[in-house]
Design a protein that fits this description.
Layout: H1 2-10, H2 30-161, H3 168-180
Length: 181
């Protein structure tokens, strides 16, 4: 019987007790190898399914949550930026409108001051014109009176020079008739 056990063992082990060839290919060890293979795979499966994969899944879920939150925050910030831009554009338009109103009111104020100054200048010019016209009328009246006097004196001298006697009343009537037309 010893030969049988040694014969069975001898196919995988030599006379010194060391394995010959590749032990994985020894058919007598297959059940033992399969048992340990299955046991190792079950342990690896349990470790992976109970410890490693839940941690990986939680990390992935956390990462996905962070990405989702970041995208939502970015959208929120983008909306706020658009609102801020709209507010800026509105404020800019309001400022431009206010500037236009200020310019228009300044122009109106300057125009009103200019109109007052023009009206004052026109009234001064009208007053000076009426004074000048009055002075011209006085000068004309004085000139006509002087012309009439000169004409009377000249007519009287001419009549005397021609040898006639000049009556002041007749000379005045003749000069007045001639001056009227």
């Amino acid at each position: 019987m010893a030969t049988e056990t040694t014969g069975a063992v001898s196919s995988c082990v030599d006379s010194y007790g060391s394995a010959i060839g590749m032990p994985q290919l020894c058919f007598e060890w297959f059940p033992n190898q399969i048992f340990w293979l299955v046991l190792t795979l079950v342990v690896i499966f349990l470790v992976l399914s109970r410890i490693a994969l839940p941690r990986i899944a939680s990390v992935l879920a956390e990462r996905q949550g962070t990405i989702t939150n970041d995208i939502a925050a970015a959208e929120n910030l983008k909306a706020k930026a658009l609102e801020a831009e709209d507010a800026y554009n509105k404020a800019l338009a309001d400022a431009r409108a206010e500037a236009q109103n200020i310019v228009a009111s300044a122009k109106a104020e300057i125009q009103a001051d200019l109109n007052v100054a023009i009206a004052k200048a026109d009234s001064e010019i009208a007053a000076k014109t009426s004074e000048s016209e009055a002075a011209i009328a006085e000068i004309r009246a004085g000139a006509l009176a002087s012309v009439e006097e000169v004409a009377k004196d000249t007519a009287a001298e001419l009549v005397s020079a021609l040898g006639g006697k000049a009556n002041a009343k007749d000379v005045g009537a003749a000069v007045a008739a001639r001056l009227k037309g």
